[in-house]
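Hi support team,

I'm filing this because I wasn't sure whether my run with magnesium ion finished correctly. The job status page said complete, but I'd like someone to confirm that the output block is well-formed before I use it downstream. Pasting the exact inputs I used:
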Amino acid sequence: MRCPFLFITGTDTGVGKTVLTSLLARHLRERGVSVAALKPICSGGRADARMLHSSLDGALTLDEINPWHFCAPLVPLLAARRERRRVELANVLAHVRKIQRRFDVVLVEGAGGLLSSLGEDFDARDLIVSLRAVPIIVSPNRLGVVNHVLLTVEALPRVISRCAPVVLMSPRRPDLASRTNPRFLAGILGPDRVLEFPWLSVAGTSTRALENIRVRRVLDALLAS
Ligand SMILES: [Mg+2]
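And here is everything the job wrote out:
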């Protein structure tokens, strides 16, 4: 990998970022890579951070994975304001870089979609640019996703978006849209950029998911990008 930071962002909230981040972490650990997975900012509970915590098997504490957490299920900036707290970009960057000194690869999960306000005057895009991270765009494979993916790609600086992989999370029951979206998007973005992540019947963040050959194929393709 050419960059120590992979940033897992998405076209929306609840689209599968945490599942993908956890499995990437487990997959890398299986291969003997020293990896951290961070969800620096959480609002509305710390379930995502706890999932990352279990995928790291004690390599980091919950507070190292997620230093900023707010109770209200709101965009993080508003959730922080309700508690009269502030999150500054510089502090988040300092934390992520400090963790990076101890690991070869750092996975960073955003909160919500790319332009969701994470703190005072910054969003996931600012973190990606500041860290020179490789963004991974996670999206549900359903009708409407073509627009959401292209908007997200357009919102990134071209030099960064050029190579950003898109992971389409398969629905439980495929439909006409989910069967035709991947090829159509690949035609626009490039053949190797669009990856189809299978629907998982087992808990998405468990090691059992790694036994799925289609899951491993997606993870390997992401790590090669
Ligand atoms: Mg998540």
